[in-house]
């Protein structure tokens, strides 16, 4: 009996240690790698489930790219590998990924990696600026509002951010474009830089890019800051009744020290997860913003690729977006485990 109990105890400890190992950082990385493999498969088959085909315009007599010769159309299909069965195309797609080859765009007739290299910096600039500004604004406002719950500042900030979080993005976009770009003319209506500005001095080019960036990034930042504010305010309110706050007041600590050095630091933990979540939401939001402002990023490229059923471009953009989202979520998970000791036990 004692041997059986010892064996069961040892087996239980082994299972717990294995479970802890699976839940550790290595387990997180393995989980994300498995997710990427599943998404790579979906990335190939979902675009082909859309109605229409990439070379449909070649068979349309009204299209400027119409090809009346059947042999020439077949030659174009063979050039892009569209005449092969789906299974062979999938294996060729996986082989290309192993070599770092994303294929050639059907619409632009250039490598997809070239298109992504041209558009990715603009998307990172737009999304990174908006996420940073929105997080900073939402966290600071949430700290002040949660610390002064029910007072004048909180009564003003809470309805404002709740309204911003509830109003659809296209409504806010229509208002700011109509007001600041059309009526007042303070900001450009579209694009990321002024045409033929390559000959300008570097400092003037930087100002021009910032001028074009301010309106779309500001729209995204407003959406991000609203959710960050609500999370940070709730976390701060949860810290107000903590024992260390009462002890600090009893020791005569100032509200500024208690608010920023103690309460805010503990309340920041949920915002780490929120940043990872918003990094994923930023992808879909950036697609909309880039389409509205004609911003030359991955979002606009994705819209153009879907409209023309450009399978290689769709697959390349979706793959890069997937990797970016999963990397951001993995970084948030690892950072949360690092900051919160309880998740490492």
DSSP helix fraction? over 70%
User: What's the alpha carbon Rg, rounded to whole Å?
Assistant: 26 Å
CATH class of the domain at 114-187 and 215-344: Mainly Alpha
Name the poorly predicted regions.
1-22
Strand % is under 5%
Distance between the termini: 31 Å
Q: Name the assembly state.
A: single chain
Number of helices: 13
What structural category characterises the helix and strand content? mainly alpha
CATH topology of the domain at 114-187 and 215-344: MetI-like fold
What is the average of the pLDDT values? 76
The CATH architecture name of the domain at 114-187 and 215-344 reads Orthogonal Bundle
CATH homologous superfamily label of the domain at 114-187 and 215-344: MetI-like
What characterizes the major β-sheet? none
Shape: globular
Number of strands: 0
Which series of helices and strands comes N to C?
HHHHHHHHHHHHH
């Amino acid at each position: 009996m004692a041997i059986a109990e010892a064996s069961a105890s040892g087996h239980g400890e082994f299972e717990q240690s294995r479970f802890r190992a699976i839940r550790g950082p290595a387990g997180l990385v393995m989980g994300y790698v498995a997710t990427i493999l599943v998404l790579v498969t979906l990335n190939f088959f979902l675009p082909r489930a859309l109605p229409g085909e990439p070379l449909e315009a070649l068979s349309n007599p009204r299209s400027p790219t119409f090809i009346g010769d059947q042999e020439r159309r077949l030659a174009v299909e063979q050039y892009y590998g569209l005449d092969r069965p789906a299974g062979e195309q999938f294996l060729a797609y996986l082989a290309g990924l192993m070599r770092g080859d994303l294929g050639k765009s059907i619409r632009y007739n250039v490598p997809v990696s070239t298109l992504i290299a041209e558009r990715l910096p603009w998307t990172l600039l737009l999304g990174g600026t908006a996420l940073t500004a929105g997080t900073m604004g939402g966290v600071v406002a949430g700290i002040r509002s949660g610390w002064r719950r029910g007072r004048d500042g909180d009564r003003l900030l809470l309805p404002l951010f709740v309204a911003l979080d509830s109003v659809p993005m296209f409504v806010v976009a229509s208002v700011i474009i109509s007001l600041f770009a059309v009526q007042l003319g303070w900001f450009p209506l579209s694009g990321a830089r002024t045409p033929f500005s390559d000959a300008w001095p570097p400092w003037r080019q930087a100002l021009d890019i910032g001028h074009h960036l301010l309106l779309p990034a500001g729209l995204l930042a407003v959406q991000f800051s609203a959710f960050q504010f609500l999370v940070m305010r709730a976390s701060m309110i949860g810290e107000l009744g903590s024992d260390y706050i009462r002890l600090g007041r009893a020791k005569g600590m100032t509200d500024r020290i208690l608010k920023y050095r103690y309460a805010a630091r503990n309340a920041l933990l949920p915002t780490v997860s929120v940043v990872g979540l918003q990094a994923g939401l930023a992808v879909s939001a950036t697609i909309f913003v880039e389409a509205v402002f004609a911003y030359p990023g991955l979002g606009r490229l994705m819209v153009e690729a879907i409209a023309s059923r450009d399978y290689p471009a769709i697959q390349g953009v979706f793959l890069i977006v997937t990797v970016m989202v999963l990397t951001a979520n993995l970084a948030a998970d690892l950072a949360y485990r690092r900051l919160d000791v309880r998740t490492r036990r």
